[in-house]
Amino acid sequence: RMPGHMNVLLAEADVPYDDLFEMERINDDFKSTDLVIVIGANDVLNPAAREAEGTPIYGMPVLNVDQAKHIVICNYDLKPGYAGVENPLYTR
Asked: Residue 24 domain-assigned?
């Protein structure tokens, strides 16, 4: 379950709220995950948020998808997200 607008989008798609996980509850599970499939996300999973001081996303909570063994990202393009910070997962 992502903050803000994503909850609205999921509700509009009739995704039951009880089927969602809080980020804090699920985030540590990525390190034991074989495959993560990401659809249309950038800043919310950008590991640069942990280390890119001085950027708009620094310190922002992100999904730890970079800890999974494999990641498949389905996105419109490879451009930075709204914050304008390059996502190192796109070149991994």
From this structure: no
